[in-house]
Amino acid sequence: MIMARDEHSVTPQSQDFSAWYNDVVFRAELVDRGPVRGSMVIRPYGYRIWELLQADLDGRIKATGHQNAYFPLLIPQSYMAREAEHVEGFAPEFFTVTHAGGKELEEPLIVRPTSETIIGEMMAKWISSYRDLPLLLNQWANVLRWELRPRMFLRTSEFLWQEGHTAHATAADAVAETMLALGFYQDVATGIAALATVPGEKTPGERFAGAERTFTIEAMMRDGRALQAGTSHFMGTNFAAAFGITFTGESGTAELCQTTSWGMSTRMIGGLIMTHGDDKGLVLPPDLAPYQAVIVPIGRGEQAQTTLTAASGLAAALQRAGIRTHVDDRPQVSPGFKFNDWEMRGVPIRLELGPRDLAAGTALMSRRLSYPQPDAAKQAIPLDAAPELLTAELAAFQAMLARRAVDFREEHTAVVDTWPEFTVAVAGGWALALHCGEQACEDEIKAETAASPRCIPLDGEPAQGTCIRCVKPSAYGKRLIFARAY
Fold this sequence. Notes:
Layout: H1 17-27, E1 31-33, E2 40-42, H2 44-63, E3 67-68, E4 74-76, H3 77-80, H4 84-90, E5 95-100, E6 103-111, H5 116-126, E7 135-144, E8 158-168, H6 171-191, E9 198-201, E10 213-220, E11 226-236, H7 238-243, E12 246-248, E13 254-256, E14 258-265, H8 267-276, E15 293-297, H9 302-320, E16 325-327, H10 335-344, E17 349-353, H11 355-360, E18 362-367, E19 378-382, H12 386-411, E20 413-415, H13 419-428, E21 430-433, H14 439-449, E22 452-457, E23 480-483
Parallel strand pairs: 3-7, 15-16, 15-17, 20-21
Antiparallel strand pairs: 1-2, 4-6, 5-6, 7-8, 8-14, 9-10, 9-22, 10-11, 11-14, 12-13, 17-18, 18-19, 21-23, 22-23
């Protein structure tokens, strides 16, 4: 019998948060390193989390009239050069194909870092009249961007995402679309990932290359840093002008379309790991857990088959109730190993089922985190009531994680009015501070503290005063979130 091994231990968060994160993503078997520097192989357990997130977001996108399409991976280099700010912003990250079929290509091809250019080319072909608008497209795809310091899920040279691209007749319609997409991301982040995200607008220096306005949802990780979890961009007519995306209006005159783009990626998985995880490993919100409940049958000899049969019946009852359930029937490892293994993998609820439990008509339920009291981790539950009880437990667990994330964010966010207060706040959390809006000042703050303006919160209270750094008048009429970020 194999006993619990050291592979279930992780570096404590308080000792080295970065090392803790790396331990968890590999030991929970979410990813493995790919053969190309900066690439990752998403293992089945990790990919299932992505599938659950993808299904929820895809449903929201389709329910609002958007249609999925697919566009080429390779983009002519000349396309990227049409929008000057866009190409300048992405050029350092390009993967470029110069040879194919044993010959040098007449024009190099860019492996897509994002798809505004190729989709803009197609929009120009497909749109001719105001009757063709709005054009609401979405793509699920991979993109490649060279990363100097890759980290699994957070910054890899290849990652998965969805990218929405839409064209509209008016700027008002396009801005409304931009905010609709931001709402998708906020609902997914807070609703199924149980993150405590703050929606807001980026400062000009933090905008997406080629956008007129960029909106974001920012989440706080358990080390106090911020993670940009999803972005939505109002492009105005920048790409329409570059690619000739025009329509004939009702008056008969040609007009430029107003476009948007928006995306959420596998980075969200990194966000939920760093928001909920602890020193035992992953803590998964039930809505995104590949297995919401795992049953561990316990017994030897003839008892082993009896408890396994009962576990299979219990699993079937839970599955009929809509609970994703797995029976861990591995004979080569001990129950203790299994308990540690599923704690590492973040399963919300574990059920132990042994001969004594069967005789009593119960199973021993263990929650991944103890609530509502610290000693409430385990309790015996009746087998015949398990589907109803676990349904309620999973809903309570999801809500508890969401509350815990909000509480943590509030505890580690400070309203600051002086530079010394600012430097202390961003060392371990977020600072709400006034800012002059000048790029040179942003750069100076980042150089001194490694903190950047994450967003201008949409629901921020009005505030006036002087910049936290240079004491010039505040430019935004409210406080910005500053933080060190991933």
